[in-house]
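Hi there, hope your week has been kind to you so far. Please have a think about how the structure follows from the sequence. I've dropped the whole record in just underneath, so have a look:

_____
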Amino acid sequence: MNDAIDKGSTNEPDGRQAPAWLARLLDSIDRLGMAGGVLAALALTGLTLLILLEIAFRLASRLNPDLPPGMPNAWEFSSYLMGVAFMGGAALTLRAGAHIRVSVLIANVPAAAQRVLECFACTIGLLMSGFLAWSLVLFTWASYTRGQTSMSSDTPIWIPEAAVTLGAVLLALQMLARLLQALWGLPLELPHLKATGASE
């Protein structure tokens, strides 16, 4: 996997090498994106287990009315895990090229124009994802300094917020990497990271 990441982030289609500093930077961002993907997978696994436990509790309570009808705060923790799964996997999704994209314009212009359009789109994406990441950092820090907790479970709110914020920061870094790759004419995506189904 690491060899594939290195090749995808350091070589142009014609084999020209990226500068050493850029190769190291892109490789580091790719590794962070992979870590975010692992975090997202763990959150999704936890979410699945939580839902299954909730179902099991409800079925058991019908058989034995003395049992609680469900797990306390299951919906709250489900929302935390869903947020982490969504944002944690965003950077890896971008690197894999699995994001939703309307390519009708870029597919019908010359290669030089495609590069300009990619740079423009990446700049806009970097500004937006950077703003999101910065806003979430401030939001999480405010929750931490105020000691805010959940009303239902008394969970410190900054903990799930920090996980979501981490995903947003990784997305901004991956968008920066994509912009640098577009500027240097490097491959933007690693298609082998994309999940494939029977229809593909």
